[in-house]
From TrEMBL, chain A:
Residues 9-67 form the Complex 1 LYR protein domain. Keywords: Acetylation, Electron transport, Membrane, Mitochondrion, Mitochondrion inner membrane, Phosphoprotein, Respiratory chain, Transport. Residues 132-174 are annotated as: Disordered. This is NADH dehydrogenase [ubiquinone] 1 beta subcomplex subunit 9. It comes from Toxostoma redivivum (California thrasher). It is found in: Mitochondrion inner membrane. It comes from the Eukaryota. Accessory subunit of the mitochondrial membrane respiratory chain NADH dehydrogenase (Complex I), that is believed to be not involved in catalysis. Complex I functions in the transfer of electrons from NADH to the respiratory chain. The immediate electron acceptor for the enzyme is believed to be ubiquinone. It is a peripheral membrane protein. Its main location: mitochondrion. GO terms for biological process: mitochondrial electron transport, NADH to ubiquinone. The keyword Chaperone does not apply.
Automatic annotation (TrEMBL), chain B:
Belongs to the complex I subunit 5 family. Residues 70-120 form the NADH-Ubiquinone oxidoreductase (complex I) chain 5 N-terminal domain. GO terms for cellular component: mitochondrial inner membrane. The gene is ND5. This is NADH-ubiquinone oxidoreductase chain 5. Residues 423-603 form the NADH dehydrogenase subunit 5 C-terminal domain. The lineage of its organism: Eukaryota, Metazoa, Chordata, Craniata, Vertebrata. Residues 136-416 form the NADH:quinone oxidoreductase/Mrp antiporter transmembrane domain. It comes from Toxostoma redivivum. It is an enzyme of class 7 (translocase).
């Protein structure tokens, strides 16, 4: 993915964050909707500006106006970075390789689970080379364009990095 | 019937019952702890603690138990002495009642937590430490309880230690409390060196107590009870789960500082400087916290600042030399503040973790019991006549109005009272009334008795507690008997003004005008700019000063000023002056010779 944002991305980001801060200022929904429509109209008036210099100047003025009018305590969703429940259950998210360190007497309490786990681990060891080969072939030379992983291309192959996805921890503890 | 014996035995039984869930699992493998066992233990303990309270109400029996003296050094012995007087006998049932309700609530709130038993054990440890603090007659035992509640506060605030903010908040709490501990240890050191005891009964000051140990005690109370200057840890402590906020940071731990001042109030009696300092500090804290609460949007932060403001009010009462009234306010405040936190916890859990009041609204139809009790708690907080808060708060403001004291402190306290009304009404309006702003499809219910019974129990307490405690408490000082009508109604007037103002401003937020940021609202929202200023300036100065001393100062002093280079520069200065004299001219040498002959001749006369 290229390291630069396009002009469209910057404008859309400015629009979204100004809407969110507007929502923090206008607590009641009808008032928010009124001012949100006015804001949308302000953005729409300059929608068809073709001159990039002028468009960049408008964007810069918009960012300055946003900075001046932002809310000191913006509404952040609880699970977003900076929210109150962000990373709250991080302490319970233990990685799966800790299961390998259990004492044999503890492992003997769940025999079929650990037997099945050995089979899964064998499968993971076997398919790892094929996954890496697929990723190396499919990635462009200057780096991947997106964070999405490709699916499995051939019959009998597993999608790349499937083990990390399957053994990811729960969102919230039991 | 030997009443003191029954009193003593039942109080010690209360403490012992609380220790059983900690000791029994260590004895046998089959005795395991569960949250329900711990809740029932605290309930039993509460019921037992009603016996000594009833004995005290009936006959005024008090007791001072001391057993096993630690023979520290020859002259200085530290007994383990427990004082069962009005303060401890009244506070024990209150603390246990509030803790029982909170633990019952926590069985629902923390039900999805994998380590719920550890959580309950931590709360139990905290409770034991707090009760040791209350019952202590000796500053040493009090210090044990003091540190115990500080440590448990640290462990409980950082309960979700995967979160960076929780860890920093817990560290903040510990560091600010530590700064307060310096004051307490200073006072203990002074007491040990002058009075040779740490027993509170043996502290006797015929003439004026020196101000330094009293400053130490006030510093300890500032740290523990979040007065202005050492206050930022209390709003940050809301990172912990709601039962922790309800138990520690509203009812019990934060009143430990004020309780210390109540216990040592004979020292304060004759030192007017210390009393005035308490008064002004309390007035400043209460106004500052109330100002900060005006623009907060997180429901737990609003209640945290409200706690901070009420603690300032308690400090004002200490400054008026009325420790009993401060204790009354501690007792009534415990009920309605814990209830406010539990109601907010119920709302938060039902909204799937949403704490921002901008995304709550119209909850009155959906959570009727919770919101009714929230309203009762808010009315009690504002000092509505004949609810719990009225008996303590109104009396404090009356005494403040009728005493010949600092007018500035009086004005600040009145302003803070009206601000209390403002932020309370704002919270009520935004949370309970109006249109719904929560995400749709949020299933919420109050069908669990683990939620409704603690809240309704505490609501009953909020209504009755003020009346009951005032009825049997014998006042030590005469309350003001006559005052003009407008002075009597001042608290009510100021509260009503605040309510009207809040309702007007709420109506204004619904009109189609965008809110402008002003200097006052920015001051309130950024919590007075205190946190970034103090946290950065003081730590950078301290650390850079330490670095300079450690690395530069020693080298600078030993090598440059005192050591080889210093000697060399001294020599250099001396040689430079003497070299100019050695010019090589015979005239100069003959002149010196003649001068010395002259001096020798003159000295023989």
């Amino acid at each position: 993915m290229a390291a630069y944002l396009t002009h469209q991305q910057k404008v859309l980001r400015l629009y979204k964050k100004s809407l969110r801060h507007l929502e923090s200022w206008c607590i009641h929904r009808d008032k928010y909707r009124y001012f949100a429509c006015l804001l949308r109209d302000r953005f729409d008036k300059n929608k068809d500006v073709k001159d990039m210099v002028k468009a960049t100047e408008l964007l810069k003025a918009g960012e300055q106006e946003f900075w001046a009018n932002q809310h000191p305590q913006p509404y952040i969703f609880a699970d977003s970075p900076g929210g109150i429940a962000y990373e709250r259950y991080e302490m319970y998210k233990i990685p799966e390789w800790c299961l390998d360190f259990w004492h044999p007497s503890e492992k003997a309490m769940y025999p079929d689970y650990f037997a099945k786990r050995e089979q899964w681990k064998k499968l993971q060891r076997e398919s790892w080379e094929r996954e890496i080969k697929q990723l190396q072939e499919e990635t462009p030379a200057d780096g991947p364009r997106t964070e999405a992983l490709p699916p499995a291309r051939k019959e009998g192959h597993l999608p790349p990095m499937w083990w990390q996805h399957v053994t990811r921890p729960r969102e919230q503890p039991m | 019937m030997d009443l003191p014996l029954v009193l003593n035995t039942s109080m010690l039984l209360t403490l012992t019952i609380l220790l059983t869930p900690i000791i029994f699992p260590l004895l046998s493998n089959s005795l395991k702890n569960t949250p329900d066992i711990i809740t029932n233990t605290v309930k039993t303990s509460f019921l037992i603690s009603l016996i000594p309270m009833t004995i005290f109400m009936h006959s005024g029996t008090e007791s001072l138990t001391s057993f096993w003296e630690w023979k520290f050094i020859t002259n200085f012995k530290i007994p383990i002495s427990l004082k069962m007087d009005m303060y401890s006998l009244t506070f024990f049932p209150i603390a246990l009642f509030v803790s029982w309700s909170i633990l019952q609530f926590a069985t629902w709130y923390m039900a999805s937590d994998p380590y719920i038993t550890k959580f309950f054990t931590y709360l139990l440890f905290f409770l034991v430490a707090m009760l040791i603090l209350i019952i202590a007659n000796n500053l040493f035992i009090l210090f044990i309880g003091w540190e115990g509640v500080g440590i448990m506060s640290f462990l409980l605030i950082s309960w979700w230690h995967g979160r960076a903010e929780a860890n920093t908040a817990a560290l903040q709490a510990v560091l600010y409390n530590r700064i307060g501990d310096i004051g307490l240890i200073l006072c203990m050191a002074w007491l040990a060196s002058t009075m040779n005891t740490w027993e509170i009964q043996q502290i006797v000051t015929p003439q004026q107590t020196p101000t330094l140990p009293l400053l130490g005690l006030i510093l300890a109370a500032t740290g523990k009870s979040a007065q202005f200057g050492l206050h930022p840890w209390l709003p940050a402590a809301m990172e912990g789960p709601t039962p922790v906020s309800a138990l520690l940071h509203s009812s019990t731990m934060v009143v430990a500082g004020i309780f210390l001042l109540i216990r040592t109030h004979p020292l304060f009696n004759n030192n007017q400087t210390a009393l005035t300092l308490c008064l002004c500090l309390g007035a400043l804290s209460t106004l500052f916290a109330a100002t900060c609460a005006l623009t907060q949007n997180d429901i737990k932060k609003i209640i945290a600042f409200s706690t901070s403001s009420q603690l300032g009010l308690m400090m004002v009462t200490i400054g008026l030399n009325l420790p009993q009234l401060a204790f009354l306010h501690i007792s009534t405040h415990a009920f309605f503040k814990a209830m406010l936190f539990l109601c907010s916890g119920s709302i938060i859990h039902n909204l799937n973790g949403e704490q921002d009041i901008r995304k709550m609204g119209g909850l009155q139809k959906m959570l009727p019991t919770t919101t009714s009790c929230l309203t009762i708690g808010n009315l009690a907080l504002m000092g509505t006549p004949f609810l719990a808060g009225f008996y303590s708060k109104d009396q404090i403001i009356e005494c403040l109005n009728t005493s010949y004291l600092n007018t500035w402190a009086l004005l600040l306290t009145l302003l803070a009272t009206s601000f209390t009304a403002v932020y309370t009404i704002r919270m009520t309006v935004l949370v309970q009334t109006g249109f719904v702003r929560i995400p749709p499809l949020t299933p919420m219910n109050e069908n669990n008795p683990a939620v409704t019974s603690p809240i309704t129990r505490l609501a009953l307490g909020s209504i009755m507690a003020g009346f009951i405690i005032t009825s049997f408490m014998i006042p030590m000082k005469t309350p003001p008997t006559t005052m003009p009508t407008y002075i009597k109604a001042m608290a009510m007037l100021v509260t009503v003004l605040g309510i009207i103002m809040a309702l007007e401003i709420s109506k204004m937020t619904q009109t189609m005008i965008l809110t402008k940021q002003g200097r006052f609202s920015n001051f309130s929202t950024s919590l007075g700019y205190f946190n970034p200023l103090v946290h950065r300036i003081s730590t950078t100065n301290l650390l850079s000063g330490g670095q300079n001393i450690a690395s530069h100062l020693i080298d600078l002093s030993w090598y440059k000023k005192l050591g080889p280079e210093g000697l060399a520069s001294l020599q250099l200065a001396a040689t430079k002056t003497s070299t100019t004299l050695h010019s090589g001219l015979i005239k100069a040498y003959l002149g010196c010779f003649a001068l010395s002959i002259l001096i020798a001749l003159m000295s023989t006369y």
